[in-house]
């Protein structure tokens, strides 16, 4: 505060503004070219000398940009005669690995993960029930038919079909942010599923379980077809809660226990 002519005048507080480093700025420009499709998967970036001229930077600055993009797994540095920087498509698996590491660090339980899955996936089901098209229903019916074919092999149903049905629900809902978030969650749940399958491969409980799962899949498709949004959301949330209770024997079991 300062006084001017007897009046108290507020003066702005000083703010420290962080100016991006040159390497970060170069990385941002190259990243934009990749995510907008100007650079395609497998494309080789121009030689370092050409990029140094294009961006007006030194070789160490350019290589700092390369390190940033390589850590994000959107370029790959190859050695040898055909070496250099090559473009990779942004991959949800890389995001999933990072998310898994973060959840491990935070001591996140599997119950916590499954709860988040229930919130996200039931929301996707509600969106799909409101907007579903005839084409969506055809794909869902195709997935149900595939599930019927797997009923004679409960292990194959669990390993090759079940999670794909859940991914299809998210895909057809059409919200890209939700799809990415669920794919990250599914990547961890898939590891947990595999661990559960290996532990219960010969205990005889698999067949009744997959038949109950197939009935739940049929019911949710019927509710989506009827556009019974509230009933679809409530039913799918109950189903996922039951899955969580069936899959998690120890409430204290963590993501670290699955991924380590």
Strand and helix layout:
Layout: E1 2-4, E2 7-9, H1 22-35, H2 48-55, H3 59-71, E3 75-78, E4 84-87, H4 92-105, H5 110-131, H6 134-150, H7 154-173, H8 176-199, H9 206-225, H10 229-247, H11 255-259
Antiparallel strand pairs: 1-2, 3-4
Helix pairs in contact: 1-3, 4-8, 5-7, 5-8, 5-9, 5-10, 6-7, 6-9, 7-8, 7-9, 9-10
Which stretches are low in confidence, meaning pLDDT under 50 for 5 or more residues running? none
What is the β-strand count?
4
What structural category do the secondary elements indicate? mainly alpha
**Average pLDDT number:** 91
- So how many helices? 11
Provide the β-strand percentage band: 5-15%
Alpha carbon gap, first and last residue = 56 Å
Basic shape:
elongated
Radius of gyration: 25 Å
Order of helices and strands: EEHHHEEHHHHHHHH
Q: Specify the oligomeric state.
A: single chain
State the helicity in percent bands. 55-70%
How would you sum up the major sheet? 2 strands, antiparallel
Strand order across the largest sheet = 1-2
């Amino acid at each position: 505060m300062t006084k001017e002519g007897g009046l108290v005048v507020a003066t702005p507080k000083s703010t420290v503004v962080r100016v991006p480093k040159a390497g970060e700025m170069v990385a941002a420009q190259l990243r934009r070219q990749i995510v907008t499709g100007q650079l395609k998967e497998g494309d080789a970036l121009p030689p370092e000398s050409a990029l140094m001229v294009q961006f007006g930077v030194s070789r160490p600055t350019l290589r700092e940009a390369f390190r940033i993009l390589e850590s994000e797994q959107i370029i790959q540095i190859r050695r040898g005669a055909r070496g250099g920087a090559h473009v990779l498509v942004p991959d949800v698996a890389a995001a999933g690995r990072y998310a898994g590491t973060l959840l491990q660090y935070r001591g996140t339980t599997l119950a916590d993960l499954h709860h988040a899955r229930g919130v996200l996936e039931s929301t996707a089901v509600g969106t799909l029930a409101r907007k579903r098209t005839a084409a969506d229903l055809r794909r869902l019916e195709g997935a149900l038919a595939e599930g019927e074919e797997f009923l004679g092999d409960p292990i194959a149903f669990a390993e090759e079909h079940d999670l794909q049905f859940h991914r299809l629900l998210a895909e057809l809902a059409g919200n890209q942010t939700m799809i990415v978030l669920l794919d990250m969650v599914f990547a961890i749940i898939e590891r947990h599923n595999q661990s559960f399958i290996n532990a219960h491969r010969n205990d005889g409980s698999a067949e009744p379980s997959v038949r109950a799962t197939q009935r739940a899949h049929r019911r949710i498709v019927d509710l989506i077809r009827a556009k019974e949004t509230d009933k679809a959301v409530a039913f799918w949330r109950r189903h996922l809660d039951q899955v969580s209770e069936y899959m998690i024997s120890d409430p204290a079991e963590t993501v670290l226990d699955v991924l380590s």
